[in-house]
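Table S2 (continued). Query chain:
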Amino acid sequence: MTPGDFIAKWSDSNLRERAAAQSHFIDLCKVLGEQAPTDADPKGEWYAFEKGAMKGELFPHFVARVIDGPIGPLLGSDLP
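Corresponding output:
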């Protein structure tokens, strides 16, 4: 999936956050060239949705990955 495909798919989404979260994350993995949780860890032992996560724990690491990754330049220059 290209960044443009991702933006086109998700910019008009009317799904609520909880309903779209896993699909959105899987598509983001595709954009970044990363394996989705079920591909990387089919048994769900170390990489699974909501496994061992605490609220707010992953977000700073994810943001750094996105800004430094392939879609960072598409987000604009006004990033922190």
